[in-house]
Amino acid sequence: MLNCIKNGQISGQNFVVFDFSNSLYFVLKVLAEEGFIKGFLVRKDKDSLETKKLHVLLKYKHDKSIINNIVRQPKNIVFFRANDLQKLSIGIGVYIISTSKGFMTSDKAFHMKLGGEVLFRIQ
């Protein structure tokens, strides 16, 4: 998903399309709230009325991609306690975290006193 968004912006596309999944839906919701994408639409597939697709509207500023870099965590899973999340907020970019209350940024998780698994960093 992350590579498709990044490649779509590099090639100047207005949107990219993914198969629907709940986790992807909630990650896109966080990206839209943080201003990394314009938004997204859930549409039924033309060929199959049962299949849903997510149309992600990409965002540009002065014809340049809003997303400069996406760093995924390595294959080992990295968990942070709520107190440790403040360290992530000091660096450049936004960390997206999976918590017991859903997907959110590290800042939001810190303020809600939630720990979780770091999925990726986006800047």
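[next item in queue]
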Amino acid sequence: MRSTFTLLRVATRTFYETVRGETQLRIYAVTVLSHYTDEYCKRQFGISTIRGAVRKFAQEGVEAGVDGIILPGTTLSVVEDMDVLKILTGLRPDFYQDQEQEQQYRPEDVAGRNDIEVVCGSPIMESSLNPVDALNRVLSGLSG
């Protein structure tokens, strides 16, 4: 039985050999989702912490040749040394509170950084603010 890593490596190599340069499509490896906990990672992956799972899956993605990795913002420090685009999930500005994401960070935690990208949906689309005001507040927090 092939491992997920083997499949990712084969798919990435095939993609790059056939269409790279002919498309703007990119491959990103999802490490773990922002609602995962240490307990979930231990039960599902046999890895005792979410940080350990992120590190393992990010390393596999980088070795497979992905263009970037997607990870909870709270785990950024475990992959800082990897030379790959990092896309962070779980952004929660002060004006938006929910219980959906176990792994949450604030825009100010990554303010001014230009070596990462962030994903932010619910705080903009589901906020009590109108979406334009919510987006402007998130962008303000990210800019420092």
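[queue empty]
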